[in-house]
Amino acid sequence: MTRILFICHGNICRSPMAEFIMNDLVVRAGREKEFHVASAATSTEEIGNPVYPPARRKLAEHGIGCQGKRARQLERKDYEEYDLLIGMDRANLRNIQRICGGDPRGKVHLMMDYTHRPGEVADPWYTGDFDATWRDLEEGCRGLLAALAEE
Hints:
Blueprint: E1 2-8, H1 14-28, E2 35-41, H2 53-61, H3 78-81, E3 84-87, H4 90-100, E4 108-110, H5 124-127, H6 130-150
Parallel strand pairs: 1-2, 1-3, 3-4
């Protein structure tokens, strides 16, 4: 089983959207027994809070629910428990490595590295553009699933 942890700053917008998009893609592909997908935050600011309402609405527009999801913080032990730790931007990557004590096994990656347009997933908390975030995350999740199918 491949264990994937999506990570952003607060775990209320980008990383839970990625978690639920990826889970939806995995189910649609009939591969749900092959993956465990979750998400976490690098900060403590939103711990315990549900998915941000505009992010929830964007998922719902695509028939994806996220009920019961609450923000949680990345812990050092997550590095051992997950095969891939996928950050949304470079600040996330730095914080993931700080929290996990580095990346000796090359598990930490940037979400957009799984697309044809490398870069960062813009934070809709600041941009308000959940459509762009959806497009980035869907493309990234599709690319990640394709990359894992090739392995």
